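[Q] Does anyone have a clean structure-token version of this?
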Amino acid sequence: MEEAPQDSQLYGRQDAGWLVIDENATHTGEVTGSVALTVQVSSITNRSAVTEVSELNTDEVALHDATDGSLKKTPVNLITDGGNF
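[A] Here you go.
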């Protein structure tokens, strides 16, 4: 295997050759940014799959707070519907 070029750039293998890797690539979609990455609310709100809650009540859920537009998390056992679960 041919060795990576010896210069100041970062390289990775692709198609049996070497490719320059952009260390500060800008991410788009549900995760955005180039250095500090931000997870967009749509990464939660776009999901349709549902999984069962742990019997130990240690699971947490992420909630979209409509009052300020942020994501917040809370333990599942703190969510109630008035005792009708």
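[Q] Thanks! Anything notable?
[A] The CA atoms of residues 27 and 33 lie 5 Å apart.
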